């Protein structure tokens, strides 16, 4: 981790993102509390973020048999520090095809999606849960208090969300064929 004082990435913490021991991108996050006319997080234009998961190279089934998936690098660091376990960040609100393959190759069969509790995060969690479930993984969705993201949540809020995570049931598409079926 580094920092930049001048240029495009001035007043930002720089976090390199490695996957399979290759640098894929970096995240540049401002440390200014009320940054005006600037994005909170920047990545380089030639970024390979869609092929990367922050934290991927340090996760291990020996720590826990669960893998937490969050959006940002600081979310991942906060989850690892607060509740322990394995955590990766998708560097955005959605899992890409390449990232789903990395999750499948990771060796974890129990996935907990811990997305931001805003509309985009909730919609992404539902879509990703179905996609990961189709890959024969056990998937649960953890819900934080309204408007919170994993980096803002207290350790007790994270623990409560994880302990109350809802397991995703198999989706065979029958809802679209037979109206009213919810549990099968």
Description:
The structure is a single chain. The protein starts with a strand and ends in a 17-residue tail after the last strand. With 184 residues, the protein is α/β, with parallel strands linked by helices. Helices cover 24% and strands 22% of the residues. The protein has two domains: 1-48, no CATH class; 53-184, 3-Layer(aba) Sandwich (Dna Topoisomerase Vi A Subunit, Chain: A, domain 2), CATH 3.40.1360. It contains four helices and nine strands. The longest helix is centred in the C-terminal third of the chain and has 15 residues, at 119-133. The strands form two sheets. The protein has a five-stranded mixed β-sheet, sandwiched between helices. The protein has a four-stranded antiparallel β-sheet with strand order 1-2-3-4, with no helix packed on it.
Which features characterize this protein?
single chain; 184 residues; alpha/beta; Dna Topoisomerase Vi A Subunit, Chain: A, domain 2; 2 domains; four-stranded antiparallel β-sheet; 4 helices; 24% helix
The CATH architecture assignment of the largest domain turns out to be 3-Layer(aba) Sandwich
Q: Report on the biggest sheet.
A: 5 strands, mixed
CATH fold description of the largest domain: Dna Topoisomerase Vi A Subunit, Chain: A, domain 2
Distance between the termini: 48 Å
Number of strands: 9
Strand content: 15-25%
Helix content: 10-25%
Spans with pLDDT under 50 lasting ≥5 residues?
174-184
CATH class of the largest domain: Alpha Beta
- Tally of structural domains: 2
- Which term fits the overall shape? globular
- Average residue pLDDT: 87
Q: If strands are numbered along the chain, what order do they take across the biggest sheet?
A: 6-5-7-8-9
Which structural category fits the helices and strands? alpha/beta
**Rg calc:** 17 Å
- Helix count equals 4
């Amino acid at each position: 981790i580094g920092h930049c004082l001048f240029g495009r990435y001035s007043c930002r913490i720089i976090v390199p993102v490695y996957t399979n021991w290759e640098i894929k991108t970096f995240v540049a996050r401002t440390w200014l509390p009320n940054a005006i006319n600037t994005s909170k997080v920047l990545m380089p234009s030639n970024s390979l973020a869609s092929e990367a998961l922050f934290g991927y190279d340090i996760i291990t089934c020996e720590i826990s048999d669960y893998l937490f998936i969050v959006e940002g690098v600081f979310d991942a660091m906060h989850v690892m520090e607060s509740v322990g376990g394995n955590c990766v960040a998708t560097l955005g609100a959605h899992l890409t095809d390449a990232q789903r393959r990395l999750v499948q190759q990771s060796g974890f069969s129990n996935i907990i999606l811990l997305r931001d509790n805003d509309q985009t995060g909730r919609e992404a969690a539902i879509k990703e849960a179905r996609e990961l479930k189709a890959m024969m993984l056990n998937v649960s969705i953890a819900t934080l208090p309204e408007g919170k993201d994993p980096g803002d949540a207290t350790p007790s809020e994270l623990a409560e969300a994880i302990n109350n995570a809802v397991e995703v049931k198999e989706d065979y598409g029958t809802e679209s064929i037979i109206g009213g079926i919810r549990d099968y």
